[in-house]
Amino acid sequence: MLDLNFIIPEIFLTLSILIFVIIGVFIKNSFEIIYKLSLFLIFLLIVIILSNNDEYSKIFNESISIDMFSIYSKILILTSTFFILFISKRYIIDIKNNKFEYPVIVLLSILGMFIMVSSNDLIVFYLGLELQSLALYILASIDRDNIKSSEAGIKYFVLSALSSGLLLYGCSLVYGFAGSTNFETISNNTQAFNVGIIFGMVFILVGLAFKVSVVPFHMWTPDVYQGAPTSVTSFFSVVPKIAGMAIFIKFMYLPFREILDQWQYILVFMSIASMILGAVGAMAQKNIKRLMAYSSIGHMGYALAGIASGTENGFKSTLVYISIYLVMNIGAFGCILLMKRDGKYIEEINELSGISKNHPLISLGFLVILFSLAGIPPLAGFFAKFYIFMSVIESNMFTLAIVGLVTTVISAFYYIRIIKVMYFDDPKKSFERFTDYRIHGPIIISCILLISFFLYPSFLNDIVSKIIIF
Amino acid sequence: MNFPILSAITFIPIIGALFVFLTRSEKDEKNSGAIYISIFTSIVNFFIILFVWYSIDKTTSDFQFIEEYNWISGFIKFKFGIDGISILFILLTAFIIPICIFSCINSIKTRLKEFLIALLVLETFIIGVFCSLDLVIFYLFFEAGLIPMFLIIGIWGGPRKVYSAFKFFLFTLLGSVLMLVAIIAIYWISGTTDITEIYQTGIPSEYQYLLWLAFFSSFAVKLPMWPVHTWLPDAHVEAPTAGSVVLAAILLKMGGYGFIRFSVGMFPVASEYFTPLIFSLSTIAVIYTSLIALMQKDMKKLIAYSSVAHMGYVTIGIFTFNKQGIEGSIVQMFSHGLISAALFLSVGVLYDRTHSRLIKTYGGIVNLMPKYSFLFMIFVLGTLGLPGTSGFVGEFLVLVGVFKVNYLVAILASIGVILAAAYILWLYKRVVFGKMENIQLKKIKDVNLSEAAILGVLSAAVLFFGFYPDPLFQTVNVSVDNLINNYNADIQQNITLKK
Predict the structure, then answer these.
(1) Distances from the Cα of B370 to the Cαs of A463, B105, B345, B374, in angstroms?
(2) What is the pLDDT of residue B406?
(3) Do B143 and A424 touch (CB under 8 A)?
């Protein structure tokens, strides 16, 4: 089989993006058509990727590896992007951001993530990472006339550029000491204690931790989440996190697997710190997007705990975790995108007061999603945490498990605070009533998935268990 | 394969809830469709469970009606099964829920449909707890019950509902997460979370202590034991009547059931080791909370504290590890389920009329509410453990059991009986007898037919099991014997191992 056959999705995506740009330039008010084409393109890509008949290979001088792992990550990325584009259309039009560039930039960032998750080489990895990040900077500031959005873009750009620089420096150190940019060669050339590689590993960790926003590299998250338009925030909270976590797993288990002892405790620290900060930081938030930012920091902490266990079950539970996380977050942002009154979108939690009277079904959906985010059984969020802690306790890291579970209690506090506002408080003026299948559909789907997950909780495990990294 | 009757009794309520959900709620009208459906489902479920109780083999201690499905492939099975101990709790649940539904029809004014859904969903989760034979399934149902209860307290509760609902939710969740750690640890220690297999293989005694403590943290909060009982008075006071009833009558029993099934069943060595801890906490609970109950101005709070004291007997009884003690505490839980439910309903009757729970509001209602006073008296006497009520049987057996083991604890616990008589009779005196000083009470009406029927059924049950508790003992007898035999065998084995 020709090497090129394996990267048909990437080639197809690149060409489509170019064609979309041309269409966008020549047709006026082309947001609608580009938006639809992008959704169709994502759907096609899912079909193309799924039609791979278990043919895995390392191509281009082993610098790209197409395997179950990359395919799984790509499917996650594509499905979540599909639904996020789906739910955010109304919002994009309402804030008059319906430029054709929007879907195109989203697609570009997906292209970057594709390259990133299938990379098997430091240079290819960096290429994908930067393509992704550049697209994300633009997305953060896409609402140009809004000062907060521009601020978010700048903040994200400056900090992210710095972290990319550190990451690149780490890559060069690793290359210098391991003598290769290929992941497998690096791992083969690494001795148990090699200061140069450890230095490089730490720098790379910094960069990766920044991308998935775990403590102590989380500072940008609340501001960017709040400043960026909600449609972009929903994208930020899910898709780059999936890609980031995927490449995080790959780095830890492939090039750096020989120095597990060195990175394990760094990850344990980052995981514990994120869980605690995510739980404590969100408590006093009044803005729901900021709250979601802290919530996502906390969730990344849990996901990281799976990697930190250093076992095969560990990274698999992380993959399961982010899969469930994306379902919950898409649902949650769907609900946030419904918070509209008098033509304005509302982000204050207090404004949700008593909506269970006026919008019983939406608030029921939000209730399910919030309890799931809090990890209360029998919802899917519980199983996500359950698998993580299974693997953590398997590696005898009881401190991590106990801290993690205690922080679930703390974080349950702010999730049920939203429920309290919705259900226990007196009703205010109701939100605008509209039925838009684009928003309600995904919320309903996500609720059904979250509730019915307990009927067959090993659904994701069965898929993930086929993944082999090393 | 036989008909999956346990899954049926577990999931019938939630299916009923689904139908209630689908009924149309006309505004301001009584949603009669929802009411009929929920009454129908809960009563049908009660009769099915009566049938199960009748048909369960009372001569074997094995788990019966076992159902097993592949669940999390490879390591966890969805396993249901009951023995003599669990069927009693299931029966209690199925008996109390229809009563709650009847009582809430009149007293819940807003969002009745949602309330019924919450109750039915809660019933599913509670029955699931008592049916499950796998630790993970058990945990799942145990925790899931928090969601409907949180909403019941928070949406339909009193003025401080938010505080109470949060306290309830966070306390119980914090207690339970440690149990989750322990459950996962058990999986990695013994390779399974199936309770029957764990019973057979046993858990190495060096692990038992920490695991026991983790389970203890969860059950102690749920039961509740002193000093982690503080959520209970708040939750009881603020919850609507039906919510308090479910909470006192059934949810607390999950803690006691957990102690019997898991702490004693799985960790006998640690249970023996920690018995002094349990005894001291329980005697403190019995005496201290009884004294607090004496000082309460709020009727619901008084009953809540009396619940904590009564649960103290339950834990003392379980950790005597003899037949009288354990059977006594099971009967005590069963009878407390009936009596506390009835007491909360009685308070609810008064509350619906005057919207006050304070004792000083009342006085001298005996002339205006003779029927009510009579029914209330039966439950008051049941609380203080008068012979002839079901309260006596449990308390008496627990005290007999503990006298065999520890005189001091037995004497201290007996003081609790006297204190119980003091606070509950004083409550009765202040509410029912005396001069009527509050003018508003002049218009108070006696219990109507539905209230009389509810309280009448409960009082009949209290008296029936007081005079003839044999059905209860027949049901639990063999299972308790088996539990004690296994416990003694494990303790013996551990002693020989140490030598």
Answers:
(1) 68, 24, 16, 6
(2) 85
(3) no
For residue B300, pLDDT beyond 70: yes
Structural contact between residues A306 and A246, judged by C-beta atoms closer than 8 angstroms? no
Q: What ipTM did this prediction achieve? A: 0.89
Q: Under an 8 A CB cutoff, do A458 and B170 touch? A: no
B150 touches chain A (CB under 8 A): yes
Q: Count other C-beta atoms under 10 Å from residue B70's C-beta.
A: 11
Predicted confidence at residue A13, as pLDDT, reads 92
Cβ of A457 within 8 Å of Cβ of B181? The answer is no
Interface of B with A in 55-84 (CB under 8 A): 71-74
- Residues in chain B with CB shorter than 8 Å from the CB of A377 are 139-141, 143-144
Rounded Cα distance, B305 and B295, in Å: 10
Query: How confident is the model over A189-226, as pLDDT tens digits?
Result: 887 778 888 899 999 999 999 989 998 898 899 999 99
* Shortest CA distance from B177: residue in chain A: A405
Contact A102, A221 (CB under 8 A): no
Three state DSSP letters for chain A: CCHHHHCHHHHHHHHHHHHHHHHHHHCCCCHHHHHHHHHHHHHHHHHHHHCCCCCCEEECCCCEEECHHHHHHHHHHHHHHHHHHHHHHHHHHHCCCCCCHHHHHHHHHHHHHHHHHCECEHHHHHHHHHHHHHHHHHHHCCCCCCHHHHHHHHHHHHHHHHHHHHHHHHHHHHHHHHCCCEHHHHHHHCCCCCHHHHHHHHHHHHHHHHHHCCCCCCCHHHHHHHHCCHHHHHHHHHHHHHHHHHHHHHHHHCCCHHHHHHHHHHHHHHHHHHHHHHHHHHHCCCEHHHHHHHHHHHHHHHHHHHHHCCCHHHHHHHHHHHHHHHHHHHHHHHHHHCCEECCEECCEHHHHCCHHHHCHHHHHHHHHHHHHHHCCCCCHHHHHHHHHHHHHHHCCCHHHHHHHHHHHHHHHHHHHHHHHHHHCCCCCCCCCCCCCHHHHHHHHHHHHHHHHHHHCCCHHHHHHCCCCCC
| Maximum CA extent, chain B | 75
Contacts of B144 in chain A (CB under 8 A): 376-378
Q: Which residues of B touch A389 (CB under 8 A)?
A: 180-181, 184
Mean pLDDT of chain B: 87
Give A-chain residues touching B191 at CB under 8 angstroms.
none
- Chain A: closest CA distance from residue B183 (Å): 9
pLDDT of B32 strictly over 90: no
Which token pair is A367?
């209730």
Report whether B135 contacts B195 (CB < 8 A): yes
- Is B140 near chain A, with CB under 8 Å? yes
**Could you say which of B144, B161, B188 has the minimum Cβ distance to residue A393?**
B188
Domain that holds residue A385: 3-464
What are the extents of the domains in chain B? Answer: 275-499
What pLDDT is attached to residue A239? 93
Distance of CA A443 to the CA centre of its chain: 18
Residue A470 covered by a domain:
no
Interface touch B71/A420, C-beta < 8 Å:
no
| Residue contact B173–A406, C-beta within 8 A | no
Domain count of chain A? 1
Dihedral angle, C-alpha A436, A438, A440, A446, nearest 10 °: 180
Residues A416, B166: C-beta atoms closer than 8 Å? yes
Q: Do B144 and A378 touch (CB under 8 A)?
A: yes
Kindly state the DSSP code that residue B240 receives in the 8-state scheme: -
Q: What is the C-alpha to C-alpha distance for residues A179 and B232, in angstroms, rounded to an integer? A: 65
Which residue in chain B is spatially nearest to A396 when comparing CA positions?
B185
| In-domain check, residue A151 | yes
Q: What does the block give as tokens for B374? A: 């009579």
Does A289 fall in a domain? yes
